[in-house]
Amino acid sequence: MEAKQKLVVVGNGMAGIRTVEELLKLAPDLYDITVFGAEPHTNYNRILLSPVLTGERTLQDIVLNDEDWYVRHGIRLLRNRKVQGIDRARRTVQADDGTRTPYDRLLLATGSNPRILPVPGHDLDGVVAFRDIGDVNQMIEASTRYRHAVVIGGGLLGLEAANGLAARGMDVSVVHLGAALLDRQLDGEAAGLLRRSLEARGLNFLLGRQTQAILGGDNGRVRALRFADGQEIPADLVVMAVGVQPNSELAQRCGLHVDRGVVVSDTLQTYDPRIYAVGECVSHRGTAYGLVAPLFEQAKVAANHLARHGIGRYEGSVTSTKLKVTGIDLFSAGDFAGGEQTETITLADTPGGVYKKLVIRDDRLVGACLYGDTVDSAWYVRLIREGARIDALRDRLMFGEGAGGE
């Protein structure tokens, strides 16, 4: 019997392991698989870190694949191990403990790194990102000892962090450079409704503010935040939620083509055909995706090629957004801002806290922004993705898939 091919996966997160799961369905015996994970945990659902922060879930609840799963599939999992170099000529990866592991195929799933604002004091004790379970544990621990939390960034992650810390009893201020919350995901109307509903939960918003410095006390821990206009606010914990950037350093060091992310083709191959890449570390047709649906679509295609079926193509994704804050329903997808050559249908029931906006171009739905009632979000995404003509649906489009037309 010939020896199995060796597949090495760098990254034990959602994209890398989903690719392995898809591969095991297609070709369970093709490879000896080794997975490197920089964290001490098995694969967990990073999307559910927000409910862990609020206390609605535990780490145990969000584990996707326990140790048994790796053992059952004969996968060698190397935890707390970082890959530091790739030797493409010899086809080996080198880990931080000096070991070298040979590969026939390599899958890079190194994810993304949180952006840290390069302001003075960004490295003080008590300044954290919101990226992994370690960050969440630090935030939970701080909430038991301190009072003032400041979240920098009014995007999805920032609001989820702020909501979680408020749920744990902290006084929370959200500092955001823009004039409205979630300015990349919502229009002004929906953002206003969201702000009012979060303020009712006790969150404080400082919009249009630029952080100039983070100030520390004698003990080396953060104590305050200073804005560009000179104002200072107290802070015992600062959470930076100002976006992520693809973690493509490893690919760059071994000479792969990198343009922000690791550049891949429609088959998720890098410029070295033996090396594939999926997830947030990837740049595909100029886009890096930070949401889970595109990562799973990429995983399917990469697995198809690793399994030597060779027929899958990834052509990009229609992305949609939800906020994981219990009791607040919002959703946006596609080109919800509208603009020239588009028409917009809106329904606003401000007292009822419901707002819906649909954007149509050339008799096709191209975008949706929903607040307060998101029941039909999956239907709208399907219509946007399929690009089907909607003239027959127009009268009931706003009222959802189940309305009329029977």
From TrEMBL:
Residues 320-387 form the NADH-rubredoxin oxidoreductase C-terminal domain. Pfam families: Pyr_redox_2 (PF07992), Rubredoxin_C (PF18267). Gene3D superfamilies: 3.30.390.30, FAD/NAD(P)-binding domain (3.50.50.60). SUPFAM superfamilies: FAD/NAD(P)-binding domain (SSF51905). Its cofactor is FAD. Residues 6-302 form the FAD/NAD(P)-binding domain. GO terms for molecular function: oxidoreductase activity. Keywords: FAD, Flavoprotein. Belongs to the FAD-dependent oxidoreductase family. This is Nitrite reductase [NAD(P)H] domain-containing protein.
